[in-house]
């Protein structure tokens, strides 16, 4: 007799669903103790659907084909000194920000999904988490390889793994994933797979990869294309997660809504660095942050939440506030990094006249009124040899860990500041959203590791700023930080290009 060849459906069932087993020596609930930890009710795991029907053997074959193409282009980029084809040496600082701020979080996502793969009673969910975990690890590796070429020629790349745990502004993305990974298994899925991967990921990857293409960085844009099919699968998983949980039991709805509200707000705060990158760090600009937000959230996200309305899901809380902030956050973030350029791991600069005009065109209601005058004044100080650096340490938000740089939308001349008291201590926040998240789970956020607090307490080396930067952060002073103008990066670039 000859064995009958299995069709795709049967093969998928055997290589996923039929990997499960019944427990003969222990209670199934004891094997998955976190499944009921958050109050989520699962009535039938068999209803979990994987839209891609992807088996592990097909996954490895598919990814191997992508790897061959990806590394061939990396090799060509390196052999042809591809770094000389970028639009402007300032652009490389956007890559430094991506490597130090985003790539380590891909590794946290890998760890989070690997952990999740053990926590679910449903085998379909376990297999999905396993595959996404492998994807995230692959993204870390390909991002590091794509950007490693720049480490040979530019400053600011060599200590990126060390910086992740030490540098003040990197506590923002790190705390986001620490928060998600220390939540329960279903909250992690809502936080990462839905709120970030499905709702907000286009606001991260599309601007970075389009920015790379517009600025001649073919190594980074090639990584983006290679990762895009993975991201499509992750987004589909995120939507499947929400629909599956909402269809399982009506009691899940208020829990899911609270998580969506929380993680939409935390994710939008995290994307402040992307807004800054788009408006200020790309010499050849793709679109403004305001345009990106309108395209990828207000239009696409608006349609999504209309679709989810039949389950009872509402638009995330504070979405209207973010809609108002889209005209401000990039300018406020870049101004903060410019005035703290001595403690940043990349170079900063005042936009050129053409760039200021572009910002005026893209933000006609706010830029000339609130931001252009301060940049023009800062340039005047630079020309007089009085370049301004802020010599104080800023107050940080206990929840998102961003300095209190945002302004009140009813009066953008005032800093947005909220505070709460818990067990006799005062905690400070950048917004109503962060304050609300804290007050819902204060025991979690009182443990926040806030860099400014730690510096003042003497836990970050010291006692002076130079010791903190050189010994604790491991910055090469004058090379990794300060202005782009007259930096070693700029001087090398001029030498390569034969510019006097």
Fourth-tier CATH superfamily name: Ribonucleotide Reductase, subunit A
CATH topology type = Ribonucleotide Reductase, subunit A
Q: How many domain modules?
A: 1
So what's the oligomer here? Answer: single chain
Explain how this protein is built:
By secondary structure, the chain is mainly α. The chain has one domain: Orthogonal Bundle (Ribonucleotide Reductase, subunit A). It has helices spanning 8-15, 28-31, 56-79, 92-101, 103-116, 123-151, 160-166, 171-181, 185-200, 202-214, 218-248, 252-270, 272-281, 289-308, 319-325, 329-339, 353-362, 367-383, 432-440, 442-445, 451-456, 465-472, 488-497, and strands at 407-408, 411-415, 418-422, 425-429. The strands form 2 sheets. It has a two-stranded antiparallel sheet. Strand 1 and strand 2 form a beta hairpin. The model has no long low-confidence stretch (mean pLDDT 92).
Which features would summarize this protein structure in a list?
single chain; 500 residues; mainly alpha; Ribonucleotide Reductase, subunit A; two-stranded antiparallel ribbon; globular
